[in-house]
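Researcher: Structure for this, please.
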Amino acid sequence: MQIHLNTTHSVGMGDYLCLISMLCDIPDTVVVHCNNSHSTFDRLSYFKRVLNIPDSQFELVQVEENGDFAIIGWPVKLFSKYYNPGSVNIRGQDLEIDYKNTREDKGYIGLVCYTTNQIKY
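Model: Predicted structure, token format:
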């Protein structure tokens, strides 16, 4: 399946995560073509890397032209569950995720943010 994103408008992190979750819920490989207007390609590349999404599931291709598939954000959550990888990539290191005390019917996204280079685990 191929999608060519419309990047004429900037969207927020939640919209990107909703889009990724929807695309990763599709059983076939999804090839997403997008340009870097509003840093769309850079942001999707970053989320793809952090969430360890393989190209066999979601391939991202940078192009110059603008597409016709709009990033519609949160409404896609009505039809798909949150993407839940087995590990995340933080500073080049894959860290396994332990889904303790979760229910299978409850979707969620957990984010970790930091403001300094001094990270303590």
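Researcher: Any notable elements?
Model: The mean pLDDT is 80. The beta strands are 2-6, 30-34, 58-62, 69-70, 87-90, 93-96.
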